[in-house]
Amino acid sequence: MTICDVRHEITMYPRYARYVEEITPDVMAAVLRVTGMRVESPKIRFVSRHVFVRDVLAHQQRAIAREIAELSLPDSWTSVLMGIQEEQAHWMNAGWMMSAGAMIEDPDGGAEILFMPEVFHHAGYRDPEITKAVAHQLVRVAQHRAGLGAITRSCHAAFPHRLHRGVQLHAFPAFAVCGYAEWADREVTRHTFGHAIMPGPTNRETHAFRDQVAAFQSRVENTSDLYERSGLWLIGQSPMPLPPPYMLDAGAGWVSAVVAVTGGPSLLNCMWSTPALIPTLEETMSPYAWVQRARQSITG
């Protein structure tokens, strides 16, 4: 059986691609130990910034187009959502260094991971940061496959409560999905390196990276209502294609609390195939309330 399907679509910074290919089997095993989810033969593509931006945006555009068709949204909403897509394209092109990798759904519904070795270089990534990045995206693949893409589509929807039966009003899919992946990659790196690798600067960034981050943050600060410090964030309704900075840490903390209460990630893993279990905004502030609802939903 093939351990992973690796596609080298760019020749820049080949040492990063080689290292990712080398460690992926061990990271897959670590993800299984931490989450209980097996990731078999993940597709990993090493791409340029232009391909990364193009394919991530195409993934989001497919998600919104499918939602518009399935929900028969009126022209007024279609126009709004198409305008948001244009804004996301602007922000992604302006801040392509803000993310080294992404999990996207391909046109056939399969999951694939995109990595930009160029960002690994500019961000000053070394073994721990690369391991964290690989673990994070492998978890996203596992989430996607567990529910045949249901949780991914909810995560990228403008109206997740209308897309799947039983999903609550004010459901917050990105909080749970990204927070779980962040929790898991911290656990993987804790077991691998003796301490969790947290998001943030490496202090080895290039000047080009620092300049782009500073310019991106300045644009965000000068544009009202793009990033709330708290509150519901839905990628399908946001001009920002990346989760708000607060969300990863808060989401990981919420997942950690749920794991502590339930004794493991099994209850959370039910969410990937049952979008009705996605926590609401209110439940993201009360892990215990979500645990109670999830248990009642599963046991009937």
Question: Could you give the topology of this structure?
Answer:
Layout: E1 5-8, H1 14-35, E2 43-46, H2 49-71, H3 75-94, E3 101-105, E4 111-115, H4 117-123, H5 127-146, H6 150-155, H7 160-163, H8 173-193, H9 207-221, H10 245-262, H11 266-269, H12 287-299
Parallel strand pairs: 1-2, 2-4
Antiparallel strand pairs: 3-4
Helix pairs in contact: 1-5, 1-8, 2-3, 5-8, 8-10, 10-12
Distance between the ends:
39 Å
Q: Give the domain tally.
A: 1
Physical arrangement of strands within the biggest beta sheet: 1-2-4-3
Strand proportion, as a percent range, falls in 5-15%
Provide the structure class: alpha/beta
Order of helices and strands: EHEHHEEHHHHHHHHH
Low-confidence residue ranges: none
- Helix content range: 55-70%
- By DSSP (H or I, 4+ residues per run), the number of helices equals 12
Average pLDDT taken over every residue:
93
- Tell me the major beta sheet: 4 strands, mixed
Gyration radius, rounded: 18 Å
Describe the global form. globular
Report the strand count. 4
Core attributes:
300 residues, alpha/beta, 4-stranded mixed sheet, 4 strands, 6% strand, globular
